[in-house]
Design brief:
Length: 354
């Protein structure tokens, strides 16, 4: 199968995948920490393919609870097939230990699974990677599907599944729950076709729509079901907290006090970091969100500036070329939390002068 008119899902790899699935008794799926729509949607889609088309026993393991804002992606009947390490440590660990095949999804290394890293590293199971981030840790895996010129892991998974014998290039043969979650995953990672959209992405959307996906319902769940406070805090941040430096870097720092005041929950600031990029003079946007001993960092950039490099060099992180993230620790990186603004101002000058 060609992706973007040039990339191919290798037939030999599909045959190995088919064989690994055929021999598996218990399968465990994992994605990066603080799972997003692409990570969750891809896991749900793969679980439905494996259980409905291949009769496999499948569980999804995450290190963190699923944010309310994307939990609609999980069909009601699947809720007990998701193991959360931070909530139920023992059963999550047991599930992974008893699995003979594991899939690492939307995550280029087990190190990005955070609290689950050690259990996966010690697992004797066969390991498969399906991911679209740069620099995959291929040595960790028996089989790797890694592609960066693609919108999302959901899209990569879609094209892999089309190759599988039961689906045989006919998207209408995918379980509908898989199709819905693939569409949801791709939609979130492209920010509803605003970025990373390739010919293959639109081709995927077209095939999924024809297969019966209800895109209107997905869009409504993704973009029209937030709590009021999300819009209120967004207004407050853009009006009172956004700073734009002389170099064209916009940054916003969401401290603990404001998080508590507006009762900001996980996932409720999704997309905020993109908004300052709508200003012509802004080249890069950085959002800091305070946590215990560190700030979580989100970075977005315009073409020609690497959010990924900035995240690697100054924020202990990584990601994609124009969408990346990381952490800023105190007192390791800055002596105290109040010095975050000064740090951003300083390192972005150095970074943009390079
Ligand atoms: P977000 O800003 O939406 O949290 O993350 C944007 C992108 O950066 C995602 O692709 C995510 O995987 C990546 N990313 C976020 N945080 C980290 C991190 O701490 N380390 C690495 N390597 N990537 C991250
Ligand atoms: Mn992704």
């Amino acid at each position: 199968m060609k992706i973007n008119g040039m990339k191919t899902i290798e037939t030999s790899k599909v045959a190995i995948l088919d064989h690994l699935i055929g021999n598996a008794v218990q399968i465990s799926l994992v994605a990066h920490t603080r799972e997003d729509g692409d990570a969750l949607g891809s896991c749900i889609a793969l679980m439905h393919y494996l259980s409905e088309c291949r009769n496999c026993n499948v569980g999804i393991t995450f290190s963190d609870p699923v944010p309310d804002s994307i939990s609609f992606i999980i069909p009601q009947a699947d809720r007990n097939r998701i193991f959360i390490k931070s909530k139920d440590s023992t059963s999550t660990t047991e599930w992974i230990k008893n699995s003979d095949l594991v899939f690492c999804i939307d995550c280029n290394s087990f190190s990005r699974t955070d609290k689950l890293q050690d259990v996966y590293a010690e697992s004797k199971a066969k390991k498969v990677l399906i991911d679209h981030h740069p620099s995959p840790d291929s040595a960790e895996f028996d089989l790797s599907f890694s592609e960066t010129e693609i919108s999302s892991t959901a899209e990569l998974l879609f094209y892999i599944l089309l190759e599988m014998p039961e689906i045989n290039h006919d998207a209408s043969k995918l379980p509908i729950a898989a199709s819905n979650s693939l569409m949801a995953g791709m939609t979130t990672d492209t920010n509803n076709f605003a970025n990373s959209t390739f010919p293959s992405t639109l081709n995927m959307a077209s095939q999924l729509l024809a297969a019966g996906v209800n895109r209107d319902e997905i869009l409504s769940n993704l973009y029209n079901c937030y709590r009021e406070n999300r819009v209120r805090i967004m207004g407050h941040m853009l009006k009172d907290m956004m700073v734009i430096t002389k170099k064209g870097v916009a940054y916003m720092i969401l401290d603990k006090e404001t998080i508590d005041k507006y009762d900001v929950k996980e996932g409720e600031t999704e997309g905020f970091v993109n908004i300052p990029l709508s200003i012509k003079k802004v080249k890069m946007s950085i959002l800091l969100k305070q946590d215990e001993g560190y700030f979580r960092v989100s970075i977005r950039s315009k073409k020609g500036i690497s959010a990924n490099k900035c995240a690697i060099e100054y924020f202990n992180g990584g990601g994609h070329e124009m969408a990346a993230g990381g952490k800023l620790y105190y007192p390791k990186d800055i002596a105290q939390s109040s010095m975050a603004a000064e740090y951003i101002e300083r390192v972005t000058v150095t970074f943009l002068n390079k």
